[in-house]
Amino acid sequence: MALGIRGTVAVPSFTFPATASAVFQAGAMPVGIEANPQSWEMDPTALRARLGAGDIEAVVHVRSFGYCRNLDVIEDICAEHNIPLIVDAAAAFGGAEPDGQLVGHRGVAEVVSLHATKPFAAGEGGAVLASPELISEVKNAINFALQGGLAGDRWGLNGKMSEFSAAVGRAALVRLPDVIEFRRAQADYWLTLLQDLDGVAVPQGHGAPPWQLFACRMLGRDASAIRATLADNGVESRVYYSPTVASRWSETPPRMAEVMSRDMLSLPMGRHLSRDDQRYVAELLSQILAKTPSVVNE
Questions:
Q1: Domains detected in the chain
Q2: Residue (of 193, 269, 199) closest to 236 by Cα position
Q3: pLDDT tens per residue, range 46-60
């Protein structure tokens, strides 16, 4: 809304529905871009090809699962076409790219979430990291787009954070470094346990994320079936993002996004989980994979 974009906006086909919902709510129309099988994010080659059509007014790139990858290529592609880039960094607050630079400096804006499921959890709300000029427009858009207390010439919404959530956020901020350190250590142990497990693909080249969750691909398998078997053994897990977001507006999902929506599994994270628990889950997952036939073609 703050950018005044009302046309077609490129978004990843493999993402949480909120990404496309924001585009719809701004009065624009999302179009799904194929996913990259290595980064699990928007594929640069597919993006460049789609921008060549000339009808895209903006690009929303998502830092999948809060990964903090170098986005130079995505930025360069958008700059080549003189198209604004907005980065959905919902799960990446507190993370850093491979060169150590903190998330929040890419595109015309990066947007982070402070939802209760995030490492920095204020309960609800979020933050926009952008230039002072754009922030002024954002503040107007989330205050009903009022002009001098009166209705203006554009639509807005009530996007203000409550004082209660702000107070929770201030308290949570004090603990954030410890929370991120703990979650990074836990994720590192998942990587150690799973990186050589046949049939599992773990994230690579992800920088230093805050690790809201630990996602991995069950190559050639149906993650929903594996989730059900884990649940039968007392292990909670999640499947992301199924169905693909593009299918929500009757678009034929790109192939890789469709494959990943069926084989992406998120394993438990949190202080309730001990290293013994992680080893148990890894061994159980190994046993399940050995008994689960391959049903999804790469």
A1: 8-165 (3.40.640.10), 177-291 (3.90.1150.10)
A2: 269
A3: 999 999 999 999 999
